[in-house]
Amino acid sequence: MGWRMLLETKEKGSDAKVKRILGLVALGLLLAVPVFAQTVSVGEYTANPGDVVNVEVKVDDQVKNVAGAQVLLDFSTVTPAGGPALSVTSEADVKYGVIPAGGFIAVNLGVPGQANIGVVATSGGNGPGTLLTIPLKVPANAVPGAVYALNLVTADLNDPAGNIIATKAVGGKITIAGAAPPPPPPAAGADIQVGSYEANAGDVVNVEVKVSDKVKNVAGAQVLLKFGDIGAVTSEADVKYGVIPAGGFIAVNLGVAGEANIGVVATSGGNGPGTLLTIPIKLKADLAAGEYALTLVTADLNDPAGNVLTGLTLGNGKITVKGAVPPPPAAVAKVEVTPATVTLKVGETATLTAKALDAQGKEIAGKTFTWESSAPAVATVDASGKVTAVAKGTASITATADGVKSAPVTVTVEEVAPP
Predict the structure, then answer these.
(1) What class, spelled out in words, does domain 192-322 have in CATH?
(2) Cβ neighbours around 387 below 10 Å, total
(3) Starting at the edge strand that comes first in sequence, how are the strands of the sheet with 249-253 ordered?
(4) Cβ-count burial of 303 within 10 angstroms (0-12 exposed, 13-18 middle, 19+ buried)?
(5) What is the pLDDT of residues 96-128, one digit of tens each?
């Protein structure tokens, strides 16, 4: 994928438009990012619907003598898909730093979901610091829990002589405050479809991205799968491809937690239906039971000539993590009440204690007992097992749990001796 980025502006005091070609994005997959000491990065933010987020593009302390920059920030991707779009408040609100003041800045907002910015100065500045500040307006109807990716598609720097400063670009995100919506249901019959699975915490799930019989002569693929904070891909080497003929090249980027960014290139094409990719994900051992979304953010296919295969639908999947099945509760085999006999005088009280036992004689905790007196006129018993002597005589007290009744406790009530 290659294109020219053309920024148009007017010179002060002139009606003529000055066209500045600020760069050319390299052809190829945006996966195998070279590792450089210098880093250009975007932060991570949390915002409420309606907020303005001042997104900062920063450079580290390894960036020296930078006098020019060409930055393309893409903020069009939102998870779950279909959410309302972010927007830059205005071109005039975009500011630059690190590069010395007095330079020239050109801002192009012509492509929705992108900010294409060029800065040129005659002298250089040093990091660390904020290269650009880009104010993004969060729509008032943004969905709580939604995540907007901040992708640095281009982050090219140069010194005053025009020499390129090699850098590594690191993206960020904006998370909308509030509870996340439930994961989207998997689409049925999509042309590029992620599977749905059941697993236990700690399992390895071989997630398959499949293509339908509508997919023909596919020789290249760029797939970004988001699976969130549920675990990690076992290793780059474990990711395998199919449908596309063997002998091609596969590049796997696991640099962003919860994502697998995969590119495949071959010289000849293959046909669906079949499995395009197999991505083994090791679930966290302490992952809670529930449903977790597998979202196809990108799934671009092309033929051997590089032509994009269009008109293909995408289908998301999910992993359902099963909860541990609790053992069945032990059945009550016997109820014991102590003491076995009680002698009271009229007006006195005593408390009985009941225990529920299983077939092995082990006590079962948490049981509720129903108490009963055979002769309430002689002795009563309340819900806690407290016996009150009422009149001379004998009564039998029992306790019942889950339909199992104890042996009777004999309560003998004697009259109070006269003074």
Answers:
(1) mainly beta
(2) 23
(3) 196-200, 317-322, 290-302, 218-226, 259-270, 249-253
(4) middle
(5) 999 999 999 999 999 999 999 999 999 999 999
199 and 283 in contact (C-beta within 8 Å)? yes
Other C-beta atoms lying within 10 Å of the C-beta of residue 87: 16
d(CA 156, CA 115): 14
DSSP helix/strand/coil, 92: helix
Strand partners of residue 114 = 74
Q: Tell me, what amino acid is at 306?
A: G
- Are the folds of 192-322 and 334-414 the same? yes
* CA 370 and chain centroid, separation: 49
Topology annotation, domain 39-176? Immunoglobulin-like (2.60.40)
Cα 10–chain centre separation: 44
**Which stretches of the chain score pLDDT less than 50?**
1-36, 183-187
Per-domain residue ranges of the chain = 39-176, 192-322, 334-414
Rounded CA separation 141/143 (Å): 6
Q: Which long-range contacts (CB under 8 A, 24 or more apart) does 346-351 make?
A: 346/389, 346/390, 346/391, 346/392, 346/413, 346/414, 346/415, 346/416, 347/388, 347/389, 347/416, 348/388, 348/389, 349/386, 349/387, 349/388, 349/389, 350/386, 350/387, 350/411, 351/384, 351/385, 351/386, 351/387
**pLDDT tens per residue across span 174-208:** 999 976 555 444 445 689 999 999 999 999 999 99
Contact 206, 231 (CB under 8 A): no
Answer whether CATH 2.60.40.1080 is correct for domain 334-414: yes
Residue 401 confidence (pLDDT)? 96
Q: Please give the pLDDT value at position 414.
A: 95
